[in-house]
Every structure is written in C-alpha cells, then in structure tokens.
Amino acid sequence: MATPLSRWAGSNPLSRLNPWTDGADVDGYMIAIDTREQLPYEFPGAVVMTLPTGDYSVVGLEDRVAVERKTKADAYGSLGQGRARFRREWERLADLDYAAVVIESSLPGFLHRPPHSKMNPRSAIGSLLGWSVRYRVPVFFAGDRDHGQALTGKLLQMYWKYHMEVGCGSAS
Predict the structure, then answer these.
(1) C-alpha 72: how far from its chain's center?
(2) 49: domain range?
(3) Is residue 138 part of a domain?
(4) Euclidean distance between CA atoms 66 and 37, whole angstroms
(5) Is residue 19 domain-resident?
(6) 151/147 Cα distance (integer angstroms)
(7) Any long-range contacts for 89-94 (C-beta under 8 Å, 24+ apart)?
(8) What is the domain count for the chain?
(9) In degrees rounded to 5, what are phi and psi of residue 169?
C-alpha cells in the first residue's frame, strides 16, 4: 500500500521523515488525532480521541506532547478574530514537556496574507515569533500539507524515542 509520501521516495530529502517507514510500528507508539481536527493527517494505526490540547499527540502521552497544525488561512484567522482562543492554546501547549506549531506554508508564502484576511503579514509573523519565544513552543513552516504531515509524524516519533531513552518506560 502506497503512503501519501511515497511519491517523494528518492527525490525529496523529507522522505526520510516518513514516520511509518522508519519503525513506528516497531517502536510501539500510536499517534492520537484530536476529534476536533477538521482536516486530519492520515497516519496508519492512528487513534481519534479528544486531546486536552493540540491536534496530534502520542497515545498515552497526551498530557506531555502535542502538535498544533495550521493552514496559512487558519493561522491568520487564529491570529486575528480567534486570537484570544489561540493564545490560550499556546498557554496550554507551554505546559507540556514538548509542543510545536506546524504551519502548512513556507515562511515566504506566509508573508502573503490570504484573500480573506486584513491582517498585516508582519504582525502575524511577529505574533507567532513572540509567542514562540514567550511560551517556548517552536513554530515550523513546513511548506505544504505533505511536508506538514511528515514533520508532525517525525516530531511525535522523536518525542516517543526520547521519552523511552530517558527511562520513562511505557506510556501506560
């Protein structure tokens, strides 16, 4: 069965980020997808559940790790009209052992606001960078949806591996 990322094989350096081809099943972790996620990524074996924060996590570690996914349009909306709610999300993410915000846009692409938004792109970037520093939550500009999925999967996999290496044992 071909994965959405299979077309990258050999031609794209991010093909190495494909979490389900480098031992995800062997590692014994499952990705959790929030029930409220409107455009969920497809991860084999993923479990849909209500997460306390973020859109993606690791089953059993939902209170320790999360990734928040945003399209460019959603990010602008969240920084504008949804600003108070988005800031509360960042505050919750800051309470975790590890959290990240993955934006499905390149940084240069993000500097061109979506048609529906009146927000100044420099203000949008300023808010993201300011909150990233304040809450110690990195922002990754993934370029597009496929790269966002690969990056999200790899971040969760790396957290799982770190969690197991430091002797935390199983997630249960």
Answers:
(1) 13
(2) 24-165
(3) yes
(4) 13
(5) no
(6) 6
(7) 89/53, 89/54, 90/131, 90/134, 90/135, 90/137, 91/135, 92/52, 92/53, 92/54, 93/53, 93/54, 93/66, 93/68, 93/135, 93/137, 94/135, 94/136, 94/137
(8) 1
(9) 75, -155
* 145 located within any domain: yes
**13 within domain boundaries:** no
Per residue of the chain (172 residues), what is the pLDDT tens digit?
333 333 333 333 444 444 443 434 435 889 999 999 999 999 999 999 999 999 999 999 999 999 999 999 999 999 999 999 999 999 999 999 999 999 999 999 999 999 989 999 999 999 999 999 999 999 999 999 999 999 999 999 999 999 888 866 555 4
Q: Between vectors from CA 152 to CA 150 and to CA 154, what angle results, nearest 5°?
A: 70
Beta bridge partners of 57: 32
CB atoms near residue 95 (< 10 Å): 13
Provide the CATH number for the domain around residue 94.
3.40.50.10130
